[in-house]
């Protein structure tokens, strides 16, 4: 084997340009595949951190019936429910609050529009919530001021740090007046940076919380509950509480399950499935470049076999077997792809470092990803180097010696 490797390295040295071209295709393919998979893994880590930050005893009620087991049929799932805002009612909220094992229930109503202050504008997420929202959704905490009461009716607001910075700069926003649509709101509180990563926490930094009643007015007087956050008591079994909530809501909705109750595990599963699917799709596309690199290696190896026909004849004349000739050329193909795989892997680490320093996302190159990269590159070498190697081994030694 050492002799095969030495012969392969000597061949590369004697044909540097050809070797570089061979390497380039493999490096590009391995870099693309490794980088995309590592980005997907990094996103999974971020999403897991986000969901775990919500708390193990917090569940979310979403509109629409999501089949958490997969395979929901179009006949049993109405897509319109996912964008509907009239599925959960105030009666549902009251009944949930009275249910054993539940500590807090906080409906969320989204309000369209921009926030203005003087001649400045901002486009935060405007959420109509009850005053117990921060107690339920503990990702957000107050930095200054106060939260409005649970059933607040006045036009008051709590703003996030990013929104405050955009509208007021370094000025204290407490007591200032802002406009949402045509309604004036007084800022009574300032929230701190969310207890989440920069990648997924930025949206909770650019936020304005207003009383649920005010959100209903801004939505034309229509009740609009987009999501409902429920916090179970510390002693409650979350799965059992979820079953009780589900039974209650189905009974309230006349036997129709037009909602989905998502625990932390449910959310993790949904995000994990989505990210895995997306990563698999883009990785498959990137793998095409690795396949093209393999075809390029095969073409160049076939040319190399033709150019070295006389060398093959001499080696066979002095005792080299078909097996020796085949392994010599196969070693060259595998070695070039392995070197390309290593260089592509190193380039992926460099790209990951740049992405981590310039964006909130930190790519995760795990040992499994490294094995995948090197395994794929080696497999490409074997697959696309086998035919040229067999062709070299099958040459007639007498005809090869006559080749000019």
TrEMBL record:
A Gene Ontology cellular component where this protein is annotated is: plasma membrane
Q: Which residues cross the membrane?
A: 20-40, 281-305, 326-356, 368-387
Which Pfam families does the entry mention?
FtsX (PF02687), MacB_PCD (PF12704)
Main localization (coarse): membrane
ABC3 transporter permease C-terminal domain: residues covered? 284-397
Which InterPro entries does the UniProt entry name for this protein? Answer: ABC3_permease_C, MacB_PCD, Macrolide_Exporter_MacB
Topology relative to the membrane, per the entry? Multi-pass membrane protein
| Record carries keyword NAD | no
Q: Name one GO molecular function term.
A: transmembrane transporter activity
- Domain MacB-like periplasmic core: from-to ranges: 20-247
- Localization: Cell membrane
* Assigned keywords, A-Z: Cell membrane, Membrane, Transmembrane, Transmembrane helix
Family of this protein: Belongs to the ABC-4 integral membrane protein family.
Q: Under what name is this protein listed?
A: Multidrug ABC transporter substrate-binding protein
